Amino acid sequence: MQIGKLSREVRELAQAARAASRSLALSGASARNAALERAAGLLAERSAEIEAANARDLAAGREAGLSAAMIDRLRFDRRQMDKTAAGLREVIALPDPLGTVLAASRRPNGLELQRVRVPIGVILMIYESRPNVTMDAAGLCLKSGNAAILRGGREALETNLALGRVWAEALGAAGLPPASVGIVPTADRTALDALLEMDDVIDLVIPRGGEGLIRAVAEKSRIPTIKHYKGVCHVYVHAAADLDMARRIVVNAKVQRPGVCNAMETLLIDAAVADRFIPECFRELRAAGVELRGCERTRRIAPEVRPAGEEDWAAEYLDLILAVRVVDGVQAAVEHVNAWGSRHTESIVTADRAAAEQFLAGCDSACVFWNASTRLADGFEFGLGAEIGISTDKLHARGPMGLEELCTYKWVGRGAGQLRG
Fold first, then answer.
1. How far apart are CA 284 and CA 51, in angstroms?
2. Which whole number is the average pLDDT over 211-218?
């Protein structure tokens, strides 16, 4: 396809989403929920069509040499559809975020002021592989009154186009603009580059995927972008920790699901308890298949551990690999986290409240926990119902992004002829 023609087509897609966003902002919760319910139902009704599209993507992926893990992420079978439909119905059950009055005051001149939650507008979502994101992201955007433009990976294009047809029918049945959910109809990188320049019609970009994808989007985008580069998460076992609790938290944070962004990648152990904690904890981690990489002080206690280099302190392994460092106290742990972490999630295990509060206040991260696994940094676990991603940025949204984080606010003033003196 010619570059000029492609750019025109994606601009038309974005302009249609902009027009749809204005209707969505004024729509009632009942219409948005009806569209979500119809989309959930259509996953079952159109399962054969969706599975056929997914089979074409899977066949192309195998021919292209995609790994078994990538093929598994790409698969969208009836079980995945049922799970996705259940997720959409969970979103329906969440309170409508729109119109919530966040603050209200009456000025001395009688002007009534309110700060009211409203949609952001048009959200461009860029992601890889998993077709369920096409349903999950669109569902969250729709519930929060935003139009969504969805650009999945080239390996899932056929599946995503089929899911786009599901959304178009569901939105039309609910009396909402079908352009409220737009699927970028090509895997051509030129289309994405063009979209990232459309700051006149797109309000926010959310990339979701590997660090390379997110950095590339952030560097090219003229549109505000909420980023989640990587999850280099830490657990710090303090001198006053309950060591049995600490061991359970450490094993859960690393082993329960190592390939996700809120899994622990670095374990920090206070020098005061290292001799007692390391042998038993390492034994359990090795039994779970974890490869350990330690600092010199760690290796003096466990010489069989592979030496850790500076690159390990900044590594997001997403695997059963763990970097371990012995540190001298809370401040040293905080300094390590702030120097090497990714501002995602950190946890301290201790019975000392003062030490815990020092750690919680000192770590410059989106989520900080006391006596809890980093794996709990999740929209569902936080009671948000679902999340569109986890932001490691500081502006607008930080941590798990649910419905409220997909909104902004406006000031509404009601007067009776007040003037500026």
1. 41
2. 90
